[in-house]
Write a structure and sequence with these properties.
This protein has 10 helices and 8 strands. It has 242 residues and is an alpha/beta fold. It has one domain: Alpha-Beta Barrel (TIM Barrel), CATH 3.20.20.390. It binds SN-glycerol-1-phosphate. The site of SN-glycerol-1-phosphate has 15 residues, from β8 and α9.
């Protein structure tokens, strides 16, 4: 069970790293460049997904990645169309920073029978968008306002509400391609209020961002865009993690 393993890592104080792959931008050549690096062994989860998948093929991307690496593959869905048995698990996201019922429970109702039959590990996730300096695809598509990045207490209360509602993982996201990552003050405020594993993503481009997120209390940091444009950054990021 991946969630249990993550909780175990968290208990041991081990910091985890997630590589996010957008099926629209997926390139087997880039993936091979990542996976041939010794540093790749330090990747804990490979997440696959995006708010909007247009030309990409989720099924084929999952099947390819699963064949090419030993790491667990987790779907990070943008909608109830993004369900496939070709992964190990799926983050069942409830977008609790927003007030759009469709992303709080609506899509979940339509997805429920497919999830039940999928054989996937379902990870109930409190999903919080925090403002990262620009309107991201996820904020636009979900028609929700992210939490202002200078309101740590608002982020903390939102995450706590998600935990009290029974969600098992907290994913605070500045959104893919965010101008700046979630500030450490927001991360540490969430950490102080909650106990669940805390995943941080969006706009992480340097080892410094990674270090700050871990030091503020992130249990896992997820990076997508920056590694797509510069595959060699993986060494730098994971050197710090090691
Ligand atoms: C987005 O948290 C992820 O949902 C990763 O964002 O692509 O900006 O790294 P980036």
């Amino acid at each position: 069970m991946l969630l249990k393993q993550l909780i175990q890592l968290q208990t041991q104080g081990h910091k985890a790293f997630g590589l996010l792959i957008d099926p629209d931008k997926f390139s087997p050549q880039v993936f091979e460049r990542w996976s041939s690096k010794p540093a790749f062994a330090a990747v804990d989860w490979v997440l696959v997904g995006g708010s909007l998948i247009t030309q990409g093929n989720l099924e084929q991307t999952l099947a390819y990645i699963r064949q090419m690496c030993v790491q667990p593959v987790i779907i990070f869905p943008g909608s109830n169309l993004h369900i496939s048995s070709s992964a190990d698990a799926i983050l069942l996201l409830s977008l609790i920073s927003g007030r759009n019922p469709e992303y709080l429970i609506g899509q979940h109702v339509a997805a429920a029978p497919f999830l039940k039959g999928s054989g996937l590990e379902i990870i109930p996730t409190a999903y919080l968008l925090v403002d990262g300096g620009r309107t991201t695809t996820v904020a636009y598509i979900s028609n929700t306002n992210p939490i202002p990045s200078d309101k740590p207490e608002l982020a903390a209360c939102t995450a706590l509400a998600g935990e009290l509602l029974g969600l098992r993982l907290i994913y605070a996201d500045a959104g893919s391609g965010a101008q700046h990552p979630i500030p450490p003050a927001v991360i540490s405020a969430i950490r102080q209020q909650t106990q669940n594993p805390l995943v941080i993503g969006g706009g992480i481009r340097h080892a410094d961002h990674l270090r700050q997120a871990y030091q503020a209390g992130a249990d896992m940091v997820v990076v997508g865009n920056a590694l797509e444009t510069n595959p060699d950054l993986l060494d730098e990021l994971l050197r710090w993690k090691a």
